[in-house]
Write a structure and sequence with these properties.
acyltransferase activity; about 20% strand; about 375 residues; alpha/beta; globular; about 35% helix; two-stranded antiparallel sheet; Peroxisomal Thiolase, Chain A, domain 1
Length: about 375
């Protein structure tokens, strides 16, 4: 089986862009990606494109050139971009294409995602008044986890402060103003124990990735990044997920993040101890803490000490969300996971600029989690 490698990445800034459509942002991200890869749009043989708000994202060919390529729409909630990359890689691995592209774009209104029928079918006022079920779910989930594993509210604040601090050095991030732990702890409680500045927010942006056959990468770049694994898993019966009606008797099933991570490590032929830099779904500060353990990067309860010691800071032994994560960048659903890959690729290349972590990382990990229970993991290496 042929190995797929990433030869180009591109990212439209995340934030708010009045008067600019998601399609225009997507086309801009693609052009940046093609330039980074050193290829032209007519050379792309197939692709996968994801969006929540754009019903026909394949229409982006009208802005890039109607070359007749198969451009398939994908959607798996917050895991959408992970699936787009996985399918683009699979198309190369199976010999269907030599050059593929994964694209993500979205333009979300202010407020929770409740108003979108594709998410929950709830009325506008439900999300606009802060009553959307996912915010409650994440609050309940981390509250239980803190009780079970000795995590404090100070640790929640440390995670959020780290991600705001990391975003301040990222020219394409949305929230670039650092906030102290004290400012975060003083912000209003939205869903106990999570406060206003511990959540990410829906916003706008786009990103893309070009992949090719490993044996042809030398024609385009001297720094290809290997796709060692790209895996998605949905929830099993009994998992503690946002739409679970009740918890079963006995031990619940693990999160899909656990299943996807285990499958990815096996496919890549490595273990979590080999990961040197990670991008984890931080829909809220508590999610980053929980996902550290669910992805195997630490044991339950170790986060309290690791975060206090600075292990997840850019200079720590396992930097997490070095570009600010979702807390610093917001989440345009279709593009969010491609932003993660954009960051890891630059870190592995050594081209992350002021955000570059020391020690020349060689193995990077990206993780996505979406309601009501789906997870995507991609492992990259030099």
């Amino acid at each position: 089986m042929m190995e797929a490698v990433i030869i180009g990445v591109g990212l439209h800034p995340f934030g708010r862009f009045p008067g600019k459509s998601a399609m225009d942002m997507g086309a801009e991200a693609v052009r940046l990606t093609l330039a980074d890869a050193g290829v032209t749009w007519p050379q792309i043989q197939g692709g996968f494109i994801g969006s929540l708000e754009v019903a026909n994202p394949d229409a982006i060919v009208g802005r890039l050139g109607p070359t007749g390529l198969p451009l398939r729409g994908v959607f798996n909630g917050c895991a959408t971009a992970g699936i787009a990359v996985s399918m683009a890689a699979k198309a190369i691995e199976t010999g269907e294409h030599d050059l593929t592209i994964a694209i993500g774009m979205d333009k979300h209104p202010r407020g929770a995602f409740a108003a979108h029928p594709s998410v929950a079918g709830l009325p506008d006022w439900y999300g606009q008044t802060g009553m959307f079920l996912t915010t409650h779910f994440f609050g309940m989930k981390i509250n239980r986890y803190m009780h079970d594993h000795g995590i404090t509210e100070r640790t929640l604040a440390r995670v959020a402060a780290k991600n705001f601090r990391n975003a301040s050095g990222n020219e394409k991030a949305w929230r670039r103003t650092p906030l102290s732990e004290e400012e975060i702890l003083a912000s209003p409680v939205l869903n106990h124990p999570l406060r206003q500045y511990m959540y990410c927010g829906p916003d706008e942006g786009a990103a893309a990735v070009v992949l090719c056959r490993a044996d042809q990468a030398h024609k385009y770049t001297s720094t290809p990044v290997r796709v060692r694994a790209s895996v998605m898993r949905s929830r099993r019966l009994g998992a503690f997920e946002v739409q679970s009606p009740s918890m079963p008797a006995g031990e619940p099933a693990p999160s899909p993040s656990v299943d996807a991570s285990r499958a990815a490590y096996e496919a890549a032929g490595i273990g979590p101890e080999d990961v040197q830099i990670a991008q984890l779904q931080d829909t809220d500060a508590g999610s980053e803490i929980i996902h550290m353990a669910e992805t195997g990067l630490c044991k339950d309860g170790e986060q309290e000490r690791l975060i206090a010691e600075g292990a997840t800071e850019p200079g720590g032994r396992l930097p997490v969300n070095t570009d600010g994560g979702l807390i610093g960048n917001g989440e345009p659903i279709g593009a969010s996971g491609l932003r993660q890959i954009h960051e890891i690729v630059h870190q592995l290349r050594g081209t992350a600029g002021a955000r570059q972590v020391p020690g020349a990382p060689r193995v990077g990990y990206t993780h996505l989690y979406g309601a009501p229970g789906v997870s995507a993991v991609t492992i990259l290496s030099t």
